[in-house]
Amino acid sequence: xKLVFLGPPGVGKGTYSARIMExxxxxxxxxxDLLREAVGNKTELGMKxxxxxxxxxxVPDQLIIDLMKxxxxxxxxxxxxxxxxxxxxxxxxxxxxxxxNVVSFEAPEDxxxxxxxxxxxxxxxxxxxxxxxxxxxxxxxxxxxxxxxxAIKNRLVVYKNQTEPLIKYYTEKNKLIKVDATGSVEEIVxxxxxxxxx
Length: 198
Ligand code: AP5
Prior knowledge:
The chain has helices spanning about 15-25, 30-40, 45-55, 60-70, 85-95, 110-115, 150-165, 165-170, 185-195, and strands at about 1-5, 30, 80, 100-105, 120, 125-130, 140, 175-180.
């Protein structure tokens, strides 16, 4: 199954895709994780991407399209978490491979800001939240540079202008599944799996 997870920053795409990957045995590919790894390893891509990411801007389409073409080459099942994020990225993806469904997660802006400002990344690779899902004592956590207030504000504007048009794009292609992302992680994961399997 080839799925795309779409939704505003902080709605929970990474959290749900990590769970659904385990339950449905599908590989999750997160462009955000791939880019943060490239930044950490100071690769050429990472050096080019860092400034955009810290400011909450999107990395230029061509860099992402090249990265993803290589990453999904030959795969017949995956969850794309955070790609495509612009119409040109969606068009480039369509030329490479046919997607089965696009899951659009929805939650109000105040909830998204609460989730992003309290998010912490664990050194065990998991995503935590200071209130909603605190890390165990033995896990060290850090805050992402783009989870600071100014970057959060910008990411929400960028989402509205550049990514939200994909909802209409995929609705017109009859591929969109909407999921209410205001409940508990358990509820959202179960609901998403049910809708995908329908
Ligand atoms: P990326 O890492 O993809 O960031 P994002 O889309 O902004 O999404 P997030 O990772 O912030 O949020 P999420 O929806 O995964 O939420 P999470 O599960 O962590 O991208 C980062 C940057 O890379 C971009 O800004 C851009 O610069 C660049 N980039 C990436 N892809 C690109 C592309 N295609 N094109 C161009 N540039 C690109 O959850 C958030 C918090 O909420 C967590 O603390 C979690 O514990 C909590 N939470 C989640 N769900 C619930 C729930 N149901 N109840 C309570 N708490 C919850």
